[in-house]
Amino acid sequence: MTDQHAPRSLIVTFYGAYGRGDAHSPAGPVPVAALIRLLGAVGVDAPSVRSAVSRLKRRGLLVADRTESGAAGYALSPDARQLLDDGDRRIYTRPPARCGDGWLLAVFSVPEEERNKRHLLRSRLARLGFGTAAPGVWIAPAHVHDETRHTLERLGLAGYVDLFRGEHAGFEPTAAAVARWWDLAGLAKRHQAFLDAHEPVLDRWTRRRVVPPADAYRDYLLALDSWRRLPYADPGLPPALLPPDWPGARAADVFGALHRKLRDAGAVYAAQWLL
């Protein structure tokens, strides 16, 4: 089990993919026995599942509950459900940025006595894909504006931040500035690591005519667990501002193809243990 596919991460990924239902029909608690079985399919043993669930419960992401049949289980907390709902647009359907869309600036000031909020604000901006233009000045493509407003308001951080829209007016080329604002080499390595792990998986599935639900579930959950962090680390910059050999678009295409090929078949496998 790699650090990336840690039990806690895989449990969150499972709930995001198969364990929450939808807005019209939220899923009930997942039985502990089902969670152990479904995580066992991707290589997590029962003690690791129980330990990870306990940690997620302490963090307020899972809450203990009973299923309709009375079995012990765990459901998403309201905050966890909101986090997963917020993540759907970025993970699955983020629109491509264009050079003419402009930039979003976040300028913040947090009093020293509230420095814990300063740390939370910085980590949340980074998670939204912001780069650092200067101390206290963070920048992102303008298309993250609505998500940024919603997130800062939900976390009670909006009072510390001013948001501005604008254009880059020099003095260096915008592509050179972008390379300062973000660690593009590090992002490229993460995209390439995803491709190295999951492009061969897609190649194998492309040659298969039948999609067995158990195999689809395993490969999809692992791919989603690898992918779901990348759209947060990567701000979704316009292609014209990226290096010519940028692997991000190909990584997105590979995940999209795996999602279309495997997600629904994986749901068939998950459902048999959730009934």
Total number of beta strands: 7
**What does the overall shape look like?**
globular
Helix content: 40-55%
The largest β sheet comes out as: 4 strands, antiparallel
Short note summarizing the structure:
This protein has 275 residues and is of the alpha+beta class. The chain is built from 11 helices and 7 strands. The chain has helices at residues 7-18, 32-40, 46-58, 78-93, 115-127, 145-154, 174-181, 184-206, 213-227, 230-233, 248-274, and strands at 30-31, 62-66, 72-76, 103-108, 131-134, 137-141, 161-166.
Structure description:
It contains 11 helices and 7 strands. The chain is 55% helix and 12% strand. It is globular and about 65 Å long. By secondary structure, it is an alpha+beta fold.
Descriptive keywords:
alpha+beta, 3-stranded antiparallel β-sheet, 275 residues, 4-stranded antiparallel β-sheet
Topology, pairings included?
Layout: H1 7-18, E1 30-31, H2 32-40, H3 46-58, E2 62-66, E3 72-76, H4 78-93, E4 103-108, H5 115-127, E5 131-134, E6 137-141, H6 145-154, E7 161-166, H7 174-181, H8 184-206, H9 213-227, H10 230-233, H11 248-274
Antiparallel strand pairs: 1-3, 2-3, 4-6, 4-7, 5-6
Helix pairs in contact: 1-9, 8-9, 8-11, 9-11
